[in-house]
Amino acid sequence: MVGLKEELLKSIWHAFTALDLDRSGKVSKSQLKASGGRRARAPVLSHNLCTVLNVPHDPVALEEHFRDDDEGPVSNQGYMPYLNKFILEKVQGNFDKVEFNRMCWTLCAKKNLSKSPLLISDEDAFKVWVIFNFLSEDKYPLIIVPEEIEYLLKKITEAMGAGWQQEQFDHYKIALNTSREGLSAWELIDLIGSGQFSKGMDRQTVSMAINEVFNELILDVLKQGYMLKKGHKRKNWMERWFVLKPNVISYYVSEDLKDKKGDIILDGNCCVEALPDKDGKKCLFLIKCLDKTFEISASDKKKKQEWIQAIQTTVNLLRAGSPPPHKEARQKRKELRQKLLAEQEELERQMKELQAANENKQKELETVRKQLEAAAARAAEEEKKRLQTQVELQDRFSLELEREKMVRQKMEEQVAQKSSELEQYLQRVRELEEMYKQLQEALEDEKQARQDEETVRKLQARLLEEETAKRAELEKWHLQQQQTIQMTEAEKQELENQRMMKEQALQVAMQQLKQLELERKEALEQYEEVKKKLETAANNTKSWKDKVAHHEGLIRLIEPGSKNPHLITNWGPAAFTEAELEERQRSWKGKKATSE
């Protein structure tokens, strides 16, 4: 309500100051006596305010408050208490702002409006006057500062579709700042009506631009335009003129706003959604409220998106409890100006303090200058002593410099010696690294020889197993022959034949055994060759170990583990362990006992 009261006061101030006042601020006695109508202007103004603001008024109290005497309140100071107590404190906001402003405009326009012809109509001048009251500063007499003038002219220029001439306005602003702080409402009307910032535009374009800015700033019209609306009962589509305000969307038959068809009340629970095309209608969107849902069709996709974004922004502002964008922007501009003004005042205060401090410093400097002059004489005498001391210090410094040079030369010689030792050490490290690489290669050779030995051992073990199997088979046949000899004589001939066949098989087996013996000998020869290679590798490893031992033990060789002595069978050296050999002996004895 405080903001509403300030807005009302600005319009009322124009109407009240239009009354014939003397220098003291009261309606002069001579004017009151000269015309009964003039005497009644203040009560009539109050009566009209109560009517347009929908405030109940008491004619008796009104006449009593405006009685005709020397102490009467028909003045700027006397009228304000009545205005606040009997009118403004009772305003509820349920009144027509345009009608209220038009009533105040009627009272003040005739006296203050310029007589020179303007490029705008009286209606446009009225709208500019209302916009002035919205943008003017909250101090009296009312003025609009250059920043708000620039904002208003930019809005009008954008509405006309023209380009903003910043350089032209900067020249005008400089000329304005040199003479005053801002413009009055009537000077602003003259400025816009002169066409200085709307050159090349006709009266109709300027009028439409002023009307658009008026709708946005004063009537809180955030967006307006024609769209199709689906009915709730008949479900038919009708074209309506929609007007979006901070808390309601009103729709009319046409843009003249005479025939209103309804309202869509907006709150924080409302939402807007885009709909797919259906029933031959395109660019559809939906407005959901608590009690109703409205389907609307825009003229094109761009308009649809603009309306959805505008409605969603309005709903978000309602949820956040924020004012309309233009009012919030105006408040921010005012706060910024107040901040800049406070900073400027603070800067001026600091400048004054600096100036006072500077004067004090000047006085202190003068005192210091005198003290310096007195000290200069003393300094001259001290300078002589200082020069003498300096000569002594220079001699001492020269001696220390020579001593330092000698120390530096010795240090350089030591550094050179250390560098030579470091180079020798690095050379020795490189030699050891080379020996380490060669030792690695020898170890690799030994590893390969061991792998070959392992392969030969496995081959020898396989041949031995095959030989064992053959011998077991021969013993079996021998046992069978012994059993055959003990058979009866009648079967002797038949057994003899079988024996001959068995002997032939035995000969074949003996030949195979001889072949296996040859293979075993070849494997043994291969084993001897691998063993020689292993011994050669071991000797190489030992020679490298001896060489490495002379180099302070920097590298330790990785030596192979100790070898167990090989077991020797009647068929030659083998890789059996004692446990394996005992197991085979037990197996042969068991087979022999079974055959007997």
From TrEMBL:
Highest taxon of source: Eukaryota
Predominant subcellular localization, coarse grouping: membrane
Residue stretches in coiled coil: 326-547
The keyword Methyltransferase appears for this protein: no
Pfam family for this entry, one: PH
Record keyword Phosphoprotein present: yes
Subunit structure: The SWAP complex consists of NPM1, NCL, PARP1 and SWAP70.
Designated name of the protein: Switch-associated protein 70
Organism field: Falcunculus frontatus
